[in-house]
């Protein structure tokens, strides 16, 4: 793989440093908010956000309505809003089909096999794969069957990553 020009490497290093500092600042803001006078409410909210699912908006709204936010400082409310937004955004991204497809491709690139079982598709690592994602994968050029199907109208039962092209994995 070709090396980036020195100025681009420096810019990427600067961006990584700034991102790390930004995340540390937000973590510090959250720690200060939890240590403050309204720490119990904020800690309870963070626990709720850890268990948050995309279909549990009612629980989050109920918690926000039950709590008295009028006495909470403006900076603390901004910190709370940032973390609510961050958690919801991460949940959405993790549950999007494109993210799931990327995760399966990355796992297969590192050696996992895609297998068809009686109850559906799964990777050899144990990760379950939706049928829609599996069908996209097996029609792609980087995934090939390892064995033959038992019946002509069914796909092969084991599929692996083939190809030596570079796949961008992070």
Strand order of the largest sheet: 3-2-1-5-4
Query: Beta-strand level of the residues, as a percent range?
Result: 5-15%
Please give the domain count.
2
Number of helices: 6
Largest sheet: 5 strands, antiparallel
The secondary-structure element order is HHHHHEEEHEE
Q: Low-confidence runs (pLDDT<50, min 5 residues)?
A: none
Rg result: 23 Å
Helix content: 55-70%
The total of beta strands comes to 5
User: How does the overall form come out from the CA principal axes?
Assistant: flat
What is the terminal-to-terminal distance? 15 Å
Structural class: alpha+beta
Mean pLDDT, to the nearest integer, reads 84
Key words describing this protein structure:
170 residues; 6 helices; 5 strands; 2 domains; alpha+beta; flat
Structure in words:
This protein is α+β, with helices and mostly antiparallel strands and 170 residues long. It has two domains: 6-95, no CATH class; 98-161. It contains six helices and five strands, in the order H-H-H-H-H-E-E-E-H-E-E. The chain has helices spanning 6-35, 39-50, 57-66, 74-95, 97-109, 131-138; strands spanning 114-117, 120-123, 128-129, 143-145, 158-161. Strand 1 (114-117) and strand 2 (120-123) form a beta hairpin. Helix 1 (6-35) packs across helix 4 (74-95) and helix 2 (39-50) packs parallel to helix 4 (74-95). It is flat, with a radius of gyration of 23 Å. The model has no long low-confidence stretch (mean pLDDT 84).
């Amino acid at each position: 793989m070709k090396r980036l020009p020195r100025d681009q490497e420096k810019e990427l290093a600067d961006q990584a440093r700034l991102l790390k500092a930004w995340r540390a600042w937000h973590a510090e803001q959250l720690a200060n908010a939890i240590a403050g006078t309204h720490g119990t409410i904020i800690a309870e909210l963070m626990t709720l956000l850890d268990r948050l699912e995309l279909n549990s908006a009612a629980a989050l709204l109920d918690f926000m309505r039950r709590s008295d936010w009028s006495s909470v400082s403006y900076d603390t409310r901004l910190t709370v809003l940032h973390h609510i937004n961050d958690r919801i955004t991460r949940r959405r991204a993790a549950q999007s089909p494109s993210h799931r497809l990327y995760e399966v491709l990355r796992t297969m690139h590192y050696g996992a096999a895609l297998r068809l079982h009686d109850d559906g598709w799964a990777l050899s690592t144990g990760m379950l794969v939706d049928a829609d994602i599996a069908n996209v994968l097996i029609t792609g050029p980087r995934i090939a069957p390892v064995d033959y199907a038992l019946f002509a109208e069914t796909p092969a039962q084991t599929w692996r990553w083939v190809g030596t092209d570079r796949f961008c994995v992070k």
